[in-house]
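Task 17 of the worksheet. Students: predict the tertiary structure of the chain below and write it out as structure tokens. Keep your answer in the requested format; marks are given for formatting as well as content.
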Amino acid sequence: MTSLLIALVACPALLASNEAIRQGQSKDRREEHRARRCNLIVTCASPSKMSSEIDRQKVVLKNNKLYISTGTSDNPGHPFAGYYLPYPDAEYEGIVSSITDVAPIMNWIYVDKDTYEVKYGVRVDAQPNITGPFSCTRQDRRMTLEGWEGFVAVKNMEGDGLWSLYFDRDDDGLREKLGLGKVVLEVELSRWEVRMPRPEGPQGWRKTE
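Model answer:
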């Protein structure tokens, strides 16, 4: 009888311990993938004649704004390569991205509070604007802002082979911000982990002549 009582008391404690371990491991995996540097790949929410220009293309950084490259621009910009990071003095996560391959310089990603353009800059640039909360969908890890996927692409009329990235915060197709006559497509932003180069040294020897 005593052994049975001990088992009955120990079982709930063991289950609780196992559940705590499982939740801890799940949280560690979640934080790990959010901290990995990823590119952003665009998928058009609805197929159309215009969507073929940008579907499956990369988001790039250029002149303090985020664009979608069509692969035809002579100066396509720097591919987004970023990750989630707690935003300073806030209770949510923001997103940072490298802005050049020359040096390890990271900038904050934000949405201009007046135009809804998605931009990048140092904290003094980002602070007055919409800096988060950025997150991602549970299943496909598509990017979200303020709890939903409201990103859209706007075709540039300059013929530079780029589409501007916006966040349709008012959910009106940017009619209030851009008026009529603009090509605006709903897009989804998927995170693709940056390909890791082969390391040099003891764990990645390179053949020499």
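Marker's comment: DSSP finds three helices and 13 strands in the chain. The domain at 34-193 is CATH 2.80.10 (Trefoil (Acidic Fibroblast Growth Factor, subunit A)).
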